[in-house]
Design brief:
- The structure is a single chain.
- This protein is an alpha/beta fold.
- The protein is about 55% helix and about 10% strand.
- It is built from 13 helices and five strands.
- The protein has helices at about 10-20, 25-35, 45-70, 90-100, 100-105, 120-130, 140-155, 160-165, 185-195, 215, 220-230, 245-250, 260-270, and strands spanning about 110-115, 135-140, 170-175, 200-205, 235-240.
- The chain has a five-stranded parallel β-sheet.
- Helix 3 runs antiparallel to helix 6 (about 120-130) and helix 7 (about 140-155) packs across helix 9.
- The radius of gyration is 24 Å and the shape is elongated.
- It starts with 8 loop residues before the first helix and ends with a helix.
- Bound molecules: adenosine-5'-diphosphate and magnesium ion (MG).
Protein backbone atom coordinates (compact mmCIF):
# COMPACT_ATOMS: atom_id res chain seq x y z
CA UNK A 1 0.00 0.00 0.00
CA UNK A 2 1.28 3.42 -0.90
CA UNK A 3 1.53 5.67 2.11
CA UNK A 4 -0.07 9.06 1.62
CA UNK A 5 0.42 12.35 3.43
CA UNK A 6 -1.52 12.36 6.70
CA UNK A 7 -2.98 15.73 5.76
CA UNK A 8 -4.82 13.91 2.97
CA UNK A 9 -6.36 11.36 5.30
CA UNK A 10 -9.62 13.18 6.12
CA UNK A 11 -10.36 13.93 2.48
CA UNK A 12 -9.45 10.38 1.45
CA UNK A 13 -11.87 9.10 4.07
CA UNK A 14 -14.55 11.49 2.89
CA UNK A 15 -14.21 10.21 -0.69
CA UNK A 16 -14.36 6.59 0.44
CA UNK A 17 -17.39 7.08 2.66
CA UNK A 18 -19.28 9.08 0.01
CA UNK A 19 -18.63 6.36 -2.57
CA UNK A 20 -19.86 3.74 -0.08
CA UNK A 21 -22.97 5.76 0.61
CA UNK A 22 -23.70 5.68 -3.15
CA UNK A 23 -23.23 1.90 -2.92
CA UNK A 24 -20.24 2.07 -5.27
CA UNK A 25 -18.42 -0.56 -3.22
CA UNK A 26 -15.60 -1.38 -5.62
CA UNK A 27 -14.85 2.28 -6.29
CA UNK A 28 -14.93 2.87 -2.52
CA UNK A 29 -12.28 0.24 -1.90
CA UNK A 30 -10.09 0.98 -4.97
CA UNK A 31 -10.24 4.58 -6.09
CA UNK A 32 -8.28 6.42 -3.39
CA UNK A 33 -5.53 3.83 -3.32
CA UNK A 34 -5.12 3.87 -7.10
CA UNK A 35 -5.02 7.67 -7.30
CA UNK A 36 -2.29 7.68 -4.70
CA UNK A 37 -0.31 5.00 -6.49
CA UNK A 38 -0.52 7.04 -9.70
CA UNK A 39 0.65 10.16 -7.83
CA UNK A 40 -2.69 11.95 -8.21
CA UNK A 41 -3.40 12.71 -4.55
CA UNK A 42 -4.03 16.36 -5.43
CA UNK A 43 -7.17 15.18 -7.26
CA UNK A 44 -8.71 14.05 -3.97
CA UNK A 45 -10.09 17.43 -2.80
CA UNK A 46 -11.73 18.03 -6.18
CA UNK A 47 -13.15 14.54 -6.17
CA UNK A 48 -14.50 15.05 -2.64
CA UNK A 49 -16.12 18.31 -3.68
CA UNK A 50 -17.87 16.77 -6.69
CA UNK A 51 -19.04 13.74 -4.72
CA UNK A 52 -20.37 16.03 -1.99
CA UNK A 53 -22.34 17.89 -4.66
CA UNK A 54 -23.65 14.54 -5.91
CA UNK A 55 -24.79 13.70 -2.37
CA UNK A 56 -26.58 17.01 -2.04
CA UNK A 57 -28.37 16.74 -5.39
CA UNK A 58 -29.39 13.15 -4.64
CA UNK A 59 -30.77 14.24 -1.27
CA UNK A 60 -32.77 17.08 -2.83
CA UNK A 61 -34.17 14.70 -5.43
CA UNK A 62 -35.11 12.23 -2.72
CA UNK A 63 -36.94 14.90 -0.72
CA UNK A 64 -38.75 16.06 -3.88
CA UNK A 65 -39.79 12.50 -4.59
CA UNK A 66 -41.00 12.00 -1.01
CA UNK A 67 -42.90 15.28 -1.15
CA UNK A 68 -44.72 14.29 -4.33
CA UNK A 69 -45.53 10.83 -3.00
CA UNK A 70 -46.80 12.29 0.31
CA UNK A 71 -49.84 14.02 -1.28
CA UNK A 72 -49.40 16.71 1.39
CA UNK A 73 -51.19 19.97 0.51
CA UNK A 74 -48.29 22.25 -0.52
CA UNK A 75 -49.06 25.40 1.47
CA UNK A 76 -49.74 23.83 4.87
CA UNK A 77 -46.30 24.08 6.44
CA UNK A 78 -44.91 25.42 9.70
CA UNK A 79 -43.84 28.52 7.77
CA UNK A 80 -47.52 29.40 7.23
CA UNK A 81 -48.65 28.11 10.63
CA UNK A 82 -49.22 30.80 13.24
CA UNK A 83 -48.55 29.31 16.67
CA UNK A 84 -48.81 32.51 18.67
CA UNK A 85 -52.32 31.74 19.91
CA UNK A 86 -51.66 28.10 20.77
CA UNK A 87 -51.04 26.95 24.33
CA UNK A 88 -47.32 26.75 25.15
CA UNK A 89 -47.51 23.02 25.88
CA UNK A 90 -48.95 22.37 22.41
CA UNK A 91 -46.24 24.45 20.71
CA UNK A 92 -43.62 22.57 22.72
CA UNK A 93 -45.05 19.18 21.72
CA UNK A 94 -45.13 20.15 18.05
CA UNK A 95 -41.51 21.25 18.30
CA UNK A 96 -40.51 17.91 19.78
CA UNK A 97 -42.42 15.96 17.15
CA UNK A 98 -40.65 17.84 14.36
CA UNK A 99 -37.39 16.20 15.38
CA UNK A 100 -38.86 12.91 14.11
CA UNK A 101 -37.95 10.77 17.10
CA UNK A 102 -41.49 9.43 17.27
CA UNK A 103 -41.14 8.02 13.75
CA UNK A 104 -38.10 5.95 14.78
CA UNK A 105 -40.13 4.62 17.71
CA UNK A 106 -43.18 3.92 15.49
CA UNK A 107 -45.21 6.05 17.90
CA UNK A 108 -48.43 7.90 17.03
CA UNK A 109 -49.73 11.43 17.18
CA UNK A 110 -53.40 12.17 17.88
CA UNK A 111 -54.73 15.69 17.30
CA UNK A 112 -58.07 16.56 18.85
CA UNK A 113 -60.12 19.73 18.69
CA UNK A 114 -63.17 21.43 17.24
CA UNK A 115 -63.39 22.11 13.49
CA UNK A 116 -61.22 24.96 12.25
CA UNK A 117 -58.72 24.90 15.09
CA UNK A 118 -55.75 23.98 12.89
CA UNK A 119 -55.44 20.20 13.40
CA UNK A 120 -55.13 19.40 9.71
CA UNK A 121 -52.75 22.29 9.09
CA UNK A 122 -50.53 21.23 12.01
CA UNK A 123 -50.56 17.57 10.92
CA UNK A 124 -49.57 18.61 7.39
CA UNK A 125 -46.87 20.97 8.66
CA UNK A 126 -45.48 18.09 10.70
CA UNK A 127 -45.66 15.88 7.61
CA UNK A 128 -43.72 18.44 5.54
CA UNK A 129 -41.05 18.76 8.23
CA UNK A 130 -40.66 14.98 8.34
CA UNK A 131 -40.39 14.81 4.54
CA UNK A 132 -37.64 17.46 4.67
CA UNK A 133 -35.83 15.19 7.12
CA UNK A 134 -36.09 12.31 4.64
CA UNK A 135 -39.03 10.36 6.10
CA UNK A 136 -41.67 8.82 3.86
CA UNK A 137 -45.10 10.24 4.66
CA UNK A 138 -48.57 9.76 3.21
CA UNK A 139 -51.37 12.23 3.86
CA UNK A 140 -54.92 11.10 3.20
CA UNK A 141 -58.43 11.99 4.30
CA UNK A 142 -59.58 8.95 6.31
CA UNK A 143 -62.78 8.40 4.33
CA UNK A 144 -60.79 8.28 1.10
CA UNK A 145 -58.32 5.71 2.35
CA UNK A 146 -61.16 3.62 3.79
CA UNK A 147 -62.87 3.63 0.37
CA UNK A 148 -59.62 2.50 -1.23
CA UNK A 149 -59.18 -0.27 1.32
CA UNK A 150 -62.77 -1.41 0.77
CA UNK A 151 -62.23 -1.59 -2.98
CA UNK A 152 -59.00 -3.52 -2.39
CA UNK A 153 -60.80 -5.94 -0.11
CA UNK A 154 -63.48 -6.56 -2.73
CA UNK A 155 -60.74 -7.32 -5.27
CA UNK A 156 -58.95 -9.58 -2.75
CA UNK A 157 -56.07 -7.12 -2.87
CA UNK A 158 -56.18 -5.93 0.73
CA UNK A 159 -52.87 -7.52 1.81
CA UNK A 160 -51.07 -5.98 -1.17
CA UNK A 161 -52.50 -2.51 -0.50
CA UNK A 162 -51.63 -2.74 3.19
CA UNK A 163 -48.07 -3.73 2.22
CA UNK A 164 -47.89 -0.68 -0.02
CA UNK A 165 -48.98 1.54 2.88
CA UNK A 166 -46.27 -0.09 4.93
CA UNK A 167 -43.69 1.64 2.77
CA UNK A 168 -44.70 4.90 4.42
CA UNK A 169 -43.08 5.47 7.78
CA UNK A 170 -45.85 7.92 8.66
CA UNK A 171 -49.49 7.73 7.66
CA UNK A 172 -51.52 10.89 8.29
CA UNK A 173 -55.18 9.99 8.62
CA UNK A 174 -57.12 13.22 8.48
CA UNK A 175 -60.52 13.44 10.14
CA UNK A 176 -61.08 9.95 11.46
CA UNK A 177 -64.60 10.89 12.59
CA UNK A 178 -65.80 11.19 9.02
CA UNK A 179 -65.88 7.47 8.29
CA UNK A 180 -69.34 6.34 7.24
CA UNK A 181 -69.26 3.36 9.58
CA UNK A 182 -70.63 0.40 7.69
CA UNK A 183 -69.42 -2.88 9.19
CA UNK A 184 -66.99 -3.32 6.29
CA UNK A 185 -65.57 0.16 6.71
CA UNK A 186 -64.99 -0.34 10.41
CA UNK A 187 -63.31 -3.65 9.70
CA UNK A 188 -60.79 -2.31 7.16
CA UNK A 189 -60.03 0.72 9.30
CA UNK A 190 -59.43 -1.48 12.32
CA UNK A 191 -57.28 -3.87 10.26
CA UNK A 192 -55.15 -0.91 9.20
CA UNK A 193 -54.68 0.31 12.79
CA UNK A 194 -53.84 -3.19 14.02
CA UNK A 195 -51.47 -3.74 11.10
CA UNK A 196 -49.39 -0.64 11.83
CA UNK A 197 -49.45 -1.02 15.61
CA UNK A 198 -45.95 -0.72 17.08
CA UNK A 199 -44.33 -0.94 13.63
CA UNK A 200 -45.20 2.24 11.78
CA UNK A 201 -46.37 5.69 12.89
CA UNK A 202 -49.73 7.31 12.41
CA UNK A 203 -50.82 10.91 12.79
CA UNK A 204 -54.58 11.11 13.24
CA UNK A 205 -56.79 14.17 13.45
CA UNK A 206 -60.28 14.06 14.90
CA UNK A 207 -63.11 16.37 15.88
CA UNK A 208 -64.36 13.62 18.16
CA UNK A 209 -62.92 13.06 21.62
CA UNK A 210 -62.24 9.43 22.54
CA UNK A 211 -65.49 9.17 24.49
CA UNK A 212 -67.34 9.72 21.21
CA UNK A 213 -65.32 7.20 19.20
CA UNK A 214 -68.02 4.56 19.50
CA UNK A 215 -69.62 6.61 16.73
CA UNK A 216 -66.70 5.55 14.53
CA UNK A 217 -66.22 1.95 15.62
CA UNK A 218 -69.79 1.25 16.84
CA UNK A 219 -69.08 -1.78 18.97
CA UNK A 220 -67.61 -0.82 22.39
CA UNK A 221 -65.05 -3.65 22.25
CA UNK A 222 -63.69 -2.59 18.86
CA UNK A 223 -63.67 1.05 20.00
CA UNK A 224 -61.70 0.17 23.13
CA UNK A 225 -59.27 -1.99 21.17
CA UNK A 226 -58.70 0.75 18.57
CA UNK A 227 -58.14 3.43 21.21
CA UNK A 228 -55.87 1.13 23.16
CA UNK A 229 -53.60 0.51 20.17
CA UNK A 230 -53.44 4.16 19.20
CA UNK A 231 -52.86 5.54 22.67
CA UNK A 232 -50.29 3.01 23.77
CA UNK A 233 -47.34 4.97 22.33
CA UNK A 234 -48.69 8.35 21.47
CA UNK A 235 -48.50 12.09 21.81
CA UNK A 236 -51.87 13.77 22.23
CA UNK A 237 -52.27 17.25 20.83
CA UNK A 238 -55.28 19.14 22.13
CA UNK A 239 -56.29 22.06 19.97
CA UNK A 240 -58.18 23.80 22.68
CA UNK A 241 -58.26 27.12 20.80
CA UNK A 242 -60.90 29.13 18.95
CA UNK A 243 -61.44 28.37 15.28
CA UNK A 244 -58.61 30.02 13.34
CA UNK A 245 -60.90 31.78 10.90
CA UNK A 246 -63.19 33.34 13.49
CA UNK A 247 -60.30 34.08 15.87
CA UNK A 248 -58.16 35.74 13.23
CA UNK A 249 -60.53 38.59 12.52
CA UNK A 250 -60.64 39.66 16.16
CA UNK A 251 -58.30 41.86 18.13
CA UNK A 252 -55.31 39.95 19.45
CA UNK A 253 -55.66 38.84 23.06
CA UNK A 254 -59.43 39.12 23.30
CA UNK A 255 -60.23 36.07 21.17
CA UNK A 256 -58.97 33.55 23.72
CA UNK A 257 -61.45 34.88 26.29
CA UNK A 258 -64.49 33.56 24.42
CA UNK A 259 -66.46 31.14 26.58
CA UNK A 260 -66.20 27.46 25.61
CA UNK A 261 -69.88 27.25 24.71
CA UNK A 262 -69.64 30.31 22.50
CA UNK A 263 -66.56 28.89 20.84
CA UNK A 264 -68.23 25.58 20.23
CA UNK A 265 -71.35 26.97 18.55
CA UNK A 266 -69.36 29.42 16.47
CA UNK A 267 -66.84 26.94 15.10
CA UNK A 268 -69.47 24.25 14.50
CA UNK A 269 -71.63 26.63 12.51
CA UNK A 270 -68.63 27.69 10.47
CA UNK A 271 -68.25 24.17 9.09
CA UNK A 272 -71.78 22.93 8.53
P1 LIG B 1 -59.17 21.62 11.49
O1 LIG B 1 -58.43 20.54 10.79
O2 LIG B 1 -58.89 21.68 12.95
O3 LIG B 1 -60.63 21.62 11.20
P2 LIG B 1 -57.71 23.32 9.66
O4 LIG B 1 -56.30 22.91 9.93
O5 LIG B 1 -58.33 22.76 8.44
O6 LIG B 1 -58.61 23.02 10.94
O7 LIG B 1 -57.77 24.90 9.66
C1 LIG B 1 -58.80 25.64 9.01
C2 LIG B 1 -58.18 26.74 8.15
O8 LIG B 1 -57.49 27.67 8.97
C3 LIG B 1 -57.12 26.19 7.20
O9 LIG B 1 -57.14 26.96 6.03
C4 LIG B 1 -55.82 26.40 7.93
O10 LIG B 1 -54.72 26.56 7.05
C5 LIG B 1 -56.09 27.67 8.72
N1 LIG B 1 -55.41 27.63 10.02
C6 LIG B 1 -55.83 27.01 11.13
N2 LIG B 1 -54.99 27.19 12.16
C7 LIG B 1 -54.00 27.97 11.67
C8 LIG B 1 -52.81 28.53 12.24
N3 LIG B 1 -52.49 28.33 13.53
N4 LIG B 1 -52.01 29.28 11.45
C9 LIG B 1 -52.32 29.50 10.16
N5 LIG B 1 -53.43 29.00 9.55
C10 LIG B 1 -54.27 28.24 10.30
MG1 LIG C 1 -59.28 19.06 9.57
Amino acid sequence: MTAFPTTMEPVAQQVTSLLSSFKLTTAASELVQRLLEAGHETALPVLAEVLELERQVRWERRVDRLRRASKLPPGKTFATFDDTRLPRSLVQKLRELRSGGFVERAANVLAFGLPGTGKTHAACALGHALVEAGHSVLFTPTYKLVQELLAAKRDLELPRVLRKLDNFAVLILDDIGYVQQSADEIEVLFTLLAERYERRSMVITSNLVFSAWDRIFKNPMTTAAAIDRLVHHSTILEFDVPSYRTGKGKAKGSETKASPSKRRSRSKKGRK
